[in-house]
Specification:
Order of helices and strands: HHHEHEHEEHEHHEE
Number of helices: 8
Bound molecules: S-adenosylmethionine
CATH superfamily: Vaccinia Virus protein VP39
Shape: globular
CATH class: Alpha Beta
Strand content: 15-25%
CATH topology: Rossmann fold
CATH architecture: 3-Layer(aba) Sandwich
Length: 211
């Protein structure tokens, strides 16, 4: 990690973060910057990362550019080719792998990943509890989760709901206390950072010790 990059991130400016975050505006960018600065750190060398719902592959490529080895999965196989092309473009194809997800997390051995990341994905997963428990199994001991998800509220909530319908997703659920409590039951959550406009939750936690 170059000193220049470290200093830029510490100053709240990841180079080209707009490009990697892709959509959602400055709030999403700020949330991610906070998570990288305060929670995960910015040196992912030697870390194995899973991004669920990787779509364009841009966030996966960011983690790879920060040194990680990243697997991106997406339920829509049409997105995989673009993500691979993005990795080639970003010169991180050696440290990225994009896979069409068929609902079976057991393609990965248990305790495979140091970090599991989602952005605007858990809100459209139908069986959230089961999904989260499977994710937990795939984390190494003390492995981290970083979820940046849509919260409920206001006009933007209605616009998002409309947008999700046009993408043919199931009715978008949006996070409420119920989903947050579920995540807190399954993971050791250190911090939940909420924004109001647009409504988002940044959830930072780690795998719980087995009882
Ligand atoms: C709203 S998009 C967000 C994409 C990207 N994370 C972002 O923030 O730009 C949701 C993505 O999750 C994928 N997806 C939805 N359900 C999924 C599931 N159960 N497993 C993996 N990917 C899923 C969709 O195909 C889509 O690419």
């Amino acid at each position: 990690m170059s000193e220049q990059l470290t200093s830029q991130i510490n100053n709240n400016v990841i180079p080209n973060l707009d490009y990697f975050v892709e959509w959602g505006g400055s709030t999403w960018k700020r949330q991610l910057n906070y998570a990288l600065r305060e929670f995960t750190g910015i040196d992912f060398a030697g870390k194995k990362i899973l991004e669920i719902g990787s779509r364009s592959g841009k966030m996966a490529c960011l983690f790879a550019r920060l040194g990680g080895t990243v697997t991106g999965i997406d339920i829509n196989p049409d997105f995989i080719g673009n993500a691979v092309a993005e990795a080639i473009n970003m010169e991180v194809e050696q440290r990225t792998n994009f896979i069409a997800y068929n609902g079976d997390f057991d393609i990965f051995p248990d305790e495979s990943f140091d970090l599991i990341f989602t952005k605007s994905v858990l809100v459209i997963v139908p069986e959230l509890e089961c999904f989260l428990r499977q994710i937990s199994n795939k984390l190494k001991p003390s492995g981290k989760v970083l979820f940046l998800e849509n919260a409920k509220g206001g006009l933007l909530h209605k616009l998002r709901r409309f947008r999700h319908r046009t993408w043919n997703y199931q009715k978008a659920k949006f996070f409420t206390d119920k989903e947050l409590n579920l995540i807190c039951d399954i993971f050791q959550v250190f911090e939940i950072k909420k924004t109001i406009f647009p409504p988002t939750y940044l959830i930072m936690g780690e795998k719980r010790d087995k009882l």
